[in-house]
Specification:
The protein has 418 residues and is an alpha+beta fold. The protein is 35% helix and 23% strand. A hairpin with a 5-residue loop joins β3 and β4. The relative contact order is 0.18. The mean pLDDT is 97. The structure holds glyoxylic acid and manganese (II) ion (2 copies). One manganese (II) ion (MN) binds next to loops.
């Protein structure tokens, strides 16, 4: 076996910081500089162009598929063998830090740069992947690019998704110049490995540097629209009101009660978006729209939670006759176990390099969960600081921890590609 790759942690860190300058904004809540680079915005397009420049500078052959997924291929000594894929996403939520997704893409780039430095060729090709709209915050479905590439969702479905302003993903791909020619359905790679920050407190609490990810939990997103009746705030008797805002508030409280009941295992529930119209102090809301994000490591508990929430929604008009309740599914995935073999490779690589590891299931959604449907897949988690806070500008992993994750990524990818 060749000597372990020397990762250039300063180069990795500088690349993370440089990419984070695209879409940077001053976050009022934290007083920190955050990143807002949502999928297929001008900022995302600028980030994509920078990434492609870096991939080409590293000697990779770049292709873009019909979903705007970006691939950089480093040829192997046996180019006909199925490649090893590694990557993540560079789109962000509107209150992001520098690491979510970007560590996986720029970490994969650093693996390639380090292979170039050492002048070695792997047997199998290595492909660096950056998936489109992983966050799902602009077009409403998460892990979208990878889900279409893996064949779970159709290209037509994805292209027709619209953002809050009514712009479709297909049109935004065209506008930004990222509607590629390459067919989106991915030929199953030999394996897929993704390095990502943990985005939670487990590794910090267990005082371990890296995580070997056992799988991803089930995710359920829906948009609920409530139709009430606009009415005068001062004159309309309570019994004559159909208050969409009140119904929305009941849903917020209900999902929290479901979590606290303990009846649904380790359910997590979030109402992240809530809006009422007309949004005036003197008018009873005639309309409310909210999103419910449920997560659960157990598929059965997830189904029970969805069923009981749906039953609750049906009861809402009982206290406000005339209330209309509509739901629309945005995203839904089951729990996904990762490859035991690749988990072992990750754990062994970490041990050889002297890093402590914990095994844990991912709380967040990742592209790896989609690619796992077509090839053996696993993930490496990098410890986060400040309780592992993420989707927040305070998100932070140290340069040493980022380099540790990428060293293990490099060792794992090399083993898989040899
Ligand atoms: C995707 O990043 C998610 O877990 O929300
Ligand atoms: Mn992510
Ligand atoms: Mn995220």
């Amino acid at each position: 076996m060749t000597k372990e790759l020397t990762i250039n942690s300063e180069r990795l860190w500088n690349s993370l910081q440089e990419l984070a300058r695209i879409g940077a904004y001053e976050d009022r809540a934290t007083g920190l500089t955050g990143v807002n680079r949502q999928s297929l915005t001008d900022e995302d397009a600028e980030g994509r162009r920078l990434l492609i420049d870096w991939l080409r500078d590293a000697g990779l052959a770049v292709t873009v598929d019909q979903m705007g997924n970006i691939f950089g291929r480093r040829e192997g000594s046996e180019p006909d063998l199925d490649p090893v894929y590694t990557g993540s996403h560079i789109d962000t939520v509107s209150t992001a830090g520098a690491f979510d997704g970007c560590l996986g893409v720029l970490g994969a780039l650093e693996v390639v740069r380090s292979l170039n430095d050492r002048g070695s060729t792997t047997r199998r090709p290595i492909v660096v992947a950056a998936w489109t709209e992983e966050e799902g915050v602009r077009f409403g479905t998460d892990m979208l690019g990878s889900a279409v590439a893996a064949g779970r969702l159709s290209l037509d479905y994805a292209h027709a998704l619209a953002d809050a302003a009514g712009k479709t993903l297909g049109d935004e791909l065209e506008r930004t110049g990222f509607k590629g020619e390459h067919p989106v359905l991915l030929d199953p790679p030999h394996a897929y490995v993704e390095c990502h920050i943990e985005q939670g407190p487990v590794l910090l609490r267990e005082d371990t540097q890296l995580g070997v990810v056992t799988g991803g939990q089930a995710i359920s997103w829906q948009r609920i629209t409530l139709g009430g009746r606009a009415a005068h705030a001062g004159t309309t008797p309570t019994e004559l009101r159909i208050d969409a805002g009140l119904a929305a508030a009941r849903i917020v409280v209900k999902v929290r009660e479901m979590v606290d009941s303990g009846d649904y295992g380790r359910l997590r529930a979030t109402v992240g978006h809530i809006a009422t119209s007309p949004g005036l102090p003197s008018v009873v809301p005639d309309r409310a729209e909210l999103t419910v994000d449920l997560r659960n490591p157990d598929d059965g508990c997830m189904v029970a939670a969805e069923r009981d929430l749906a039953a609750f929604l049906e009861t809402l008009p009982e206290s406000q006759p005339g209330l209309a309740v509509e739901t629309r599914r945005m995203a839904r995935t089951n729990q996904v176990p990762f490859s035991g073999e690749i988990q072992n490779l990750i754990a062994t690589s970490a041990e050889e390099l002297g890093y402590s590891t914990s095994h844990l299931m991912s709380g967040a959604g990742h592209d790896a969960q989609e690619i796992a449907a077509i090839t053996p897949t696993a993930m490496i988690f990098v410890r986060g600081q400040y309780d592992g806070v993420s989707h927040n500008p305070r998100e932070y992993s140290t340069p040493e921890d980022c380099a540790a994750g990428v060293r293990v990524l490099a060792a794992t990818v090399e083993k898989l590609a040899s």
